[in-house]
Amino acid sequence: MVVSVAATGAGTDAEPVTSTFFASRYVRDPLRRYRMPERSIPREAAYQIINDELMLDGNPRLNLASFVTTWMEPECDKLIMGSINKNYVDMDEYPVTTELQNRCVNMIAHLFNAPIKEDETAVGVGTVGSSEAIMLAGLAFKRKWQNKRKEQGKPYDKPNIVTGANVQVCWEKFARYFEVELKEVKLSEGYYVMDPVKAVDMVDENTICVAAILGSTLTGEFEDVKQLNDLLTEKNKETGWDVPIHVDAASGGFIAPFLYPELEWDFRLPLVKSINVSGHKYGLVYAGVGWVIWRSKKDLPEELIFHINYLGTDQPTFTLNFSKGSSQIIAQYYQLIRLGFQGYKNIMENCMENAAILREGIAATGRFDILSKDAGVPLVAFSLKDSSRFSVFDISENLRRFGWIVPAYTMPADAEHVAVLRVVIREDFSRTLLERLVGDVLKILRELDACATHAVRVATATAAGQSGDGGGVVARKSILEIEREVASRWRDAVSKKKTGPC
């Protein structure tokens, strides 16, 4: 408990400096929410006040909506805290941190099969997240297209970019902020990623690039970058255009190289000129770091790079942010050397194993259709087979009673009528938590069934009373009996699984 401390100002009638403390017995005057207080308060009181309010936030470990890492090893936590006061932009003062970023860029570039010669270094930069990375990649494409159009004496004021309607909102931000038309390939029921054929059909002479997603936010599915590359190559030959591909590998970039090494999606494909990836997703770093890698120096226009004389040294920079923390870059380097290729592979395999078990548990209820695929990002997206009595939004809301944050949403155009729940499997989502989640889903289904049944009985009784015929209620099969049977089958399936974190 924070001890109540009151101070008096000189020349006042014992006016307290502060009187807002931990526990209601000490509260006299509440802090004003939107104005800075006139006087200081003890550090213990400030800490306790804020800490108590933060208790009302959700538990990050139970936030199954987020792809963002919520757990790291204690040793990495120490490195983060030890460098939290370093401003990354001060490259001359923190040369080792700059070197660690360069190492990360090169490691990731090699992971993505960039065509780097022995005497070359990779072209890339660390960003605050994939949103900034996408902005930078998009700007590079726009500038290259504009320069070429100027050389040809053609208009360069109407650039566009082709994506699927399943893209993350950062692509919409890029298009709006930097005045680029966003041409979206609509989805259809049962096919929730960009169709390469339709995408290439939408390409025209003003298209600065086609953006493919390696790991859709909606279902975790990888788009077919290989087919897109082949189709676009043919169209470029026919038209004389040179439309390139950007791969948004925010979620899948740290999955595909370890689980699907034969899948061609990266710089092995000639038209792929840049790739972004989120270090704070399956790169296993806390929120605040992303990466963008270019195929070669010629794919990043030199005029976009600023050379700044800051604090006594020339600093080339291509970022939207200037000052930023060094901690996440250091944390990314820690994970890359700590885990190595095999360590990342083991973690991704465990995540996929847990996703498969969760998929079995959800399917075993008999109440849901599974929309996510076996291959892709480790997540499970599912919709209700029967939404006539309650919806996935009701399930999502009720899961919060147990601490779970599970998003419910509708698909983009033209599949808005499909509403789904999605559970993201991260490294810290253990088998025990998985079993608890399925158990809580079963409880909620049982409760919602009971509520719906009660509503039917009331409506039937009311209708019978109004008609005067004394109609009865149709008997229903026991929901509890069905759910016990489903739970038993699911536990049997779980007991057969031997791998994965526990």
From TrEMBL:
It catalyses: L-glutamate + H(+) = 4-aminobutanoate + CO2. The modification N6-(pyridoxal phosphate)lysine is found at K281. Pfam families: Pyridoxal_deC. Signal peptide: none annotated. InterPro entries: Glutamate_decarboxylase, PyrdxlP-dep_de-COase, PyrdxlP-dep_Trfase, PyrdxlP-dep_Trfase_major. Gene3D superfamilies: 3.90.1150.160, 4.10.280.50, Type I PLP-dependent aspartate aminotransferase-like (Major domain) (3.40.640.10). Its EC number is 4.1.1.15. GO terms for cellular component: cytosol. GO terms for biological process: L-glutamate catabolic process. Keywords: Decarboxylase, Lyase, Pyridoxal phosphate. SUPFAM superfamilies: PLP-dependent transferases. Its cofactor is pyridoxal 5'-phosphate. It is an enzyme of class 4 (lyase). One of its GO terms (molecular function) is glutamate decarboxylase activity. It comes from the Eukaryota. Belongs to the group II decarboxylase family. This is Glutamate decarboxylase. It comes from Panicum virgatum.
